Amino acid sequence: MNLEALIASSFDGLMLGFVYGLMAMGLTLIFGVMKVINLGHGPVIVIGMFAVLVMSQALGINPYLTLPVVAVLGIAFGVVMYFISLHRVINAPELTTLLATFAVNLIITGLMTVIFSTSPRGLDVSLGALQFGAVTILGTRVTAVVIAVIVTAALYFFLYRTRQGKSIRAVANNRNAAELMGIDSTWMLALSFGLGIMLAMISGALLATLFSFTVLSGGGLETKSFVIVVLGGLGNPTGALFGGIIIGLLESITTIFIPVSWVPVLEFVVFVLILLVRPNGIFGAR
Amino acid sequence: MKTLTNAPFWLLLVVIAVVAAAPVALNNVSLREDFFLILMLIILASSTNIIMGYTGYVSFGHIVFFGTGGYIAFFLMQSLQLHFVLAALCGGIAASVMALLIGVPVLRLRGAYFALATIGINEAMRSFVTNFEPFGGSIGMFFNFSVYDAYGGAKNAGQLAYYGIVAVALLTVAASFLIKKSKFGLGLMAIREDQDAAQVLGIDPARLKVLTYTISAFFPALAGAIFFFKNGIIEPGPAFELHRSIEALVMVMLGGYGTVTGPIVGAIVYDRLRSTLITAPPINLGTLTINLSNFHLVIAGVLLLAIVLFVPAGLIGWLRQRFAPVRRYLE
Amino acid sequence: MTPILQIEQVSKRFGGLLALDKVTLNVNAGEIFGIIGPNGAGKTTLFNVINGVYAPTLGRITFRGENVTGLQPYDLSKRGLARTYQVVRPLAELTVHENVTVGACFGRENLPLEKAETVADEVLQFVGLTARRDMLAGKLNVAQKKRLEMARALAARPIMLLLDEVLAGLNPQEVADMLGVVRKIRENGVTIIMIEHLMHAVMNLSDRVFVLDYGAQIAEGTPQQVSSHPKVIEAYLGDPKIAQRFLEGTG
Where are the alpha helices (DSSP H) in chain B? Predict the structure, then answer.
């Protein structure tokens, strides 16, 4: 067993884990506030990827500088998506909202396929690398981690320190009570959906700086997000971050011990077991 | 059972049987292929409806039974030269046993948690099979030419597969009808409406749900066995395709969940719509040419959204709500 | 005569909250047994423990000579225990007739479907819902839903019936109708335990009354004995409106 290899892959996994965490946070925030599992999560991540691609290639902007634009687009798109696909059925049984968001999934995937085809794409970003013995740390990964942390911190600041954020938490806690207190719950639901979509799109943008991708990359990332969200507890953003790190580490470290193709088996078995044994996540209350 | 003397029950089965006989009578192979797919979708949608429409448990990963049944039957035919019918039955029973085993813990979960767990089970199974060498790993398995010889060649095997799918479709629809109209089915619908109230009324939800899940796993497994027998090749991707699972849910919603005929109508409409879109000629708008086949996903999505938002009861559900006399004939 | 239901030293704890504190009571066959107490006294929890929704933390429950402590609600239903909910729980997307058929199918007699359908029609007649037979249960008004709850419970042909505030939310005419139904049920030999806030109703109907406060028994006896019990007056004086009603109901 090679210790250096272990350290190297731990670092890789840890860094990737932050981006995964950010990705899953979008899903879990939406569930936490409105009890909707967004089956359009994957395609939204892909929109984030292609938004960076288009802006950086067509307009020649540095990919990282497009992130604020991606964030604004994300909120706007999320709010629109909420009013089109969810507002009417927000109080319906979960099957309805699952299918409504899945319909959006089909629409986005269909449109993206028409526009971009399904051929693989990649961003040409290189920020050099740091070398510590056998451990190589890529600049792109470090940057992705820093951005993921900043976005998470900003989200928490918003949720806990601003009026709108507090209103969102009130709505998540008890929608009727929040309405009695004079909070416009419709707008808060739309806004939190917008935030969830924004997080997914930013994470997509960051993933695009790390890996090549296609219009269909969303499927795998969406199921990965489910695993992370369940690990951390449905509806718990901090849990999602930890869940993301766990999955990042799991993916990188286990490959030293078992063939890489067995990792998903492990992931999904753990996923189902956690749902059964600790449905509130490994950090949540039983 | 009163249902067995019920006219709509027999009428429905006879209509399906007569329509399904058409490609054979006309000796039309391409029509037979179309019908094969529709009948398979009817099986998937109807069996999903038994657990989702009657019991209220949305099984997002129901396709896991299709894949499992398909793989086990394929393996038995390929390695042990087991007869197709026997192999399919083994696949069906294996899927039901699997549903029984995973159903006991998983059906304790409610709502979104159950839906997520079924997705997880399908993904776990798919990634496991991808690594499972006896099943050919990520490459899958394909028949030696000799396998079809036992059935008089590939052409006859295709015919046999068609008879098989017709039989399973009739069986699935009959089971769906009998369950809906039975005491068992009434218990399921009570669970769907309010599980706690149902318990107080004397229903043991755990037992009924697990039994239902076991039944609803049997039919897609048979369909999987027949489908991959006909194709002569099985791979993890197509066998455990989550997308197909969700399509089955769409068909159930389209036709009307909790009804017997809804999933049938849903399957037919969905399939026709998709193939119409895929094969539609391009539309010329002056300089702009729109190729509808590229937009088939988009149109399917818009249609689904429209149904979910505006006709949540589905086509048959809507008819039943709107025209009370219809209820006696359209279950 | 041995009581039909014996509750001995039953406690129920939810985390730090002791919802029931060593409750002991006996119910005799054929009587109407009233349970009263201020809001939050633990009345509904007591029902939930009796019919198996919650297992008691401590204590023992005997129904018809059999220890039924910790049995599931469906086991108790099969043994002849039925209940209604304070907040009605119709099976909304099923028809009124189907709702009642569920009760008959899975109740004490465990009837086959066709037999249960006949029983359901009889019970609907009994509670006066025949005209609404084919309506969806979710579309009924409150009074009708209360009757439906009653019908569903009766269709199980229970030996004992737990009624949780069947009169709440009804207008005076509907209350009078419902009281008639309750009396008729007792005449058919069914033992009834009822939780009720309408004092005059519970005092007029009950053979014996049991008073709970903060999860513990504070009084038990005939309506006359209970209404003059100092602890009961004290418990209710916390809520002057109820105390007023209380005195009117028995005065």
Answer: 7-26, 29-49, 63-80, 84-106, 111-131, 145-149, 153-180, 183-193, 195-200, 205-231, 236-239, 242-255, 261-279, 296-310, 314-322
Helix (H) or strand (E) holding C66: strand C66-67
CB proximity B128 to A under 8 Å: yes
Residue A285: the pLDDT is 55
Note the CATH architecture for domain C1-76+160-166+188-251: 3-Layer(aba) Sandwich (3.40)
All domains in chain A, ordered by first residue: 3-117+127-277 (1.10.3470)
Q: What is the pLDDT of residue C106?
A: 95
What backbone torsions phi and psi does residue C134 show, to the nearest 5 degrees? -100, 10
pLDDT tens figures, A48-66: 999 999 999 988 889 999 9
Highest mean pLDDT among B51-55, B219-223, C211-215: B219-223
Q: Domain-by-domain residue ranges, chain C?
A: 1-76+160-166+188-251, 81-158
The two structure tokens encoding residue A246: 């766990």
In a domain, B58, yes or no: yes
Instruction: Compute the nearest-CA separation of B50 from chain A (Å).
Output: 15
The whole-angstrom separation of Cα A75 and Cα A86 is 15
pLDDT surpasses 90 at C63: yes
Collapsed DSSP state (helix, strand, coil) of residue A240:
helix
Of B117, B121, B312, the CB nearest to A96: B312
Radius of gyration of chain A (CA): 19
Q: Mean pLDDT throughout C116-144?
A: 93
What is the distance between the alpha carbons of residues C41 and C23, in angstroms, rounded to a whole number? 12
10 Å CB burial of residue A83 (0-12, 13-18, 19+) is middle
Q: Is residue B46 part of a domain?
A: yes
Closest residue to C156, CB basis, from B193, B194, B202: B202
ipTM rounded to 2 decimals: 0.89
Q: pLDDT tens digits, residue range B91-142?
A: 999 999 999 999 999 999 988 889 889 999 999 999 999 999 999 999 999 9
Average pLDDT over residues A135-140: 84
**pLDDT (mean) for A37-47:** 96
Q: For residue A174, give the 3-state DSSP assignment.
A: coil
| Cα–Cα dist B59/B245, whole Å | 8
What phi and psi values does residue B209 have, to the nearest 5 degrees?
-65, -45
Contact between A18 and A145 under an 8 Å Cβ cutoff? The reply is: yes
DSSP summary character for residue B280: P
B and C in touch (3+ CB pairs within 8 angstroms) = yes
Is A89 close to B309, i.e. CB distance below 8 A?
yes
Statement: residue C237 has pLDDT above 90: no
Partner residues linked to C18 by β-bridges: C13
Is residue B289 domain-resident? Answer: no
Q: What residues have CB less than 8 Å from A8, skipping those under 6 apart?
A: A134, A135, A136
Contacts of A93 (CB under 8 A, 6+ apart): none
Q: Provide the token pair at B293.
A: 């086949």
Instruction: List the one residue out of C199, C220, C217 whose CA is nearest residue C209.
Output: C220
Give the residue-averaged pLDDT of B168-186: 96
- C93–B189 C-beta distance less than 8 A: yes
Total number of domains in chain B: 1
**Domain encompassing residue B43:** 2-241
Contacts of C52 (CB under 8 A, 6+ apart): C68, C70, C71, C72, C73, C75, C76
Separation CA B320–CA B311 (nearest Å):
12
- Would B188 be classed as within a structural domain? yes
Candidates C74, C88, C114, C119: best to mutate against B (most CBs of B within 10 A) is C74
Reading the block at residue B292, the tokens are 């509808």
Residue C2 clears pLDDT 90, i.e. is over it: no
The candidate with the shortest Cα–Cα distance to B95, out of B77, B133, B121, B56, is B121
